[in-house]
Amino acid sequence: xxxxxxxxxxxxxxxxxxxxxxxxxxxxxxxxxxxxxxxxxxxxxxxxxxxxxxxxxxxxxxxxxxxxxxxxxxxxxxxxxxxxxxxxxxxxxxxxxxxxxxxxxxxxxxxxxxxxxxxxxxxxxxxxxxxxxxxxxxxxxxxxxxxxxxxxxxxxxxxxxxxxxxxxxxxxxxxxxxxxxxxxxxxxxxxxxxxxxxxxxxxxxxxxxxxxxxxxxxxxxxxxxxxxxxxxxxxxxxxxxxxxxxxxxxxxxxxxxxxxxxxxxxxxxxxxxxxxxxxxxxxxxxxxxxxxxxxxxxxxxxxxxxxxxxxxxxxxxxx
Amino acid sequence: xxxxxxxxxxxxxxxxxxxxxxxxxxxxxxxxxxxxxxxxxxxxxxxxxxxxxxxxxxxxxxxxxxxxxxxxxxxxxxxxxxxxxxxxxxxxxxxxxxxxxxxxxxxxxxxxxxxxxxxxxxxxxxxxxxxxxxxxxxxxxxxxxxxxxxxxxxxxxxxxxxxxxxxxxxxxxxxxxxxxxxxxxxxxxxxxxxxxxxxxxxxxxxxxxxxxxxxxxxxxxxxxxxxxxxxxxxxxx
Lengths: 319, 237
What we know:
The structure holds 2 protein chains of 2 kinds.
Chain A: H1 2-29, H2 32-57, H3 66-83, H4 87-109, H5 115-134, H6 136-139, E1 145-146, E2 153-154, E3 157-158, H7 162-185, H8 187-197, H9 199-203, H10 209-235, E4 237-238, H11 245-258, H12 265-283, H13 287-301, H14 305-313
Antiparallel strand pairs in A: 1-4, 2-3
Chain B: E1 2-13, E2 16-27, E3 31-35, H1 42-50, E4 57-62, E5 65-66, H2 72-77, E6 80-83, H3 95-107, H4 111-125, H5 140-153, E7 158-162, H6 170-183, E8 188-192, H7 196-202, E9 205-210, E10 213-218, H8 220-224, H9 227-232
Parallel strand pairs in B: 3-8, 3-9, 6-7, 7-8
Antiparallel strand pairs in B: 1-2, 1-4, 4-5, 9-10
Helix pairs in contact in B: 3-4, 3-5, 4-5
């Protein structure tokens, strides 16, 4: 049995490292337009991967993840804008803001479960969005603010340059993939899956459910914040739109489309949805109709998402 | 030595006294059966022992400690294992992973020890050849055995089995009786059981609950000959 598990472990590492190498190679091939898109998609996929840890693996549906994304984005951008911090410390400030917000929200929201958890997370995120608007003097509200190119330097590398930006996005993506894989393969991640599958049974096997869920919220929120901070830094803009309910729904859609509870599902879902909207908006102004139709079809015929369906049909070892 | 004891243990659901003022002592190493008619309060009683259900009044002591307010997961780590009355395995996870979850908090990151102990537990209940199947694909009888394997693999000092033979075929019940007899030396067992033949073949002692109270307690032959028990339970069975 351990032989069997060992070979699956090897296969999954090979696959995921292969995907990262492929994305690395694509940087040299892709035309400028898609090159820029892919950088964006990789950062957003990190957001989706963070969401997936809570939703896909732990089975907790949050409708308020934009709060964590925005905490990272504002933690980074406000310290740059108003305190004149450089990119490195500002990124850490974004991470710290995400961690703190996730811990606080986790402690409060985990007192509820199911639908109440969805509503509570949604309400907290709305409060965060309104706070961003209320403090418009600093955040410039919906209009947002541009982060000057001169601040977007990390260790002497200019992140505004498309090539550097692509590699920075890829580096973050690789980190998130490796962290997710390690979590899922560790005992901790397996307990999260057990909680998703049967919470009461897991408790009666000797696990502290609350502590595991809290850790999942914090990890998920911090990863989402990392994506938010990186997004602001790489694309040079921070605005309250990223704290709106729309940005709480996006990661849910990406993860559902790509495959909840799979490592690559969030990336595949983000990629798919991005180009679905991109291509359909070339055809018609009613592009959301086409996108919506595709989503309904996928939900009907691949309810486990693209990667989830692949796992069900062919690759049962996919993590 | 008494492994588990309760004093005045009670649980009310609204006006209903599901368990009423139960004093109960379980010596270490014993196989004790808990019997009684439907609705006698057996599952509520063991729910309070394991921490699934908070007690309305009274105390539970386990291994010399008062565990009345201890959360369930800590009681499990203190040496209790509980198998569910309604089969409650992780149906979408492999059989081996079900058992691994039950023991990984002891073995930690030592995957070799985990694999070995998983294999031992599955072997002990006789489903080692199904380790890689999804638990939900097992037959009902095998799922019951998996439940027991999950309990055993925790190496508990007290194993609580809530109606383990419910829904099993006669041949499977015979295997189960043999399994319990084989375990008897290793751990203390509290068995809730409707099948009186299983009880008579496995238990060192029997406690009879009726309307939430202890009706009688004694050896199988004492219980068999107890007039009150016959009236309340055996007579109707």
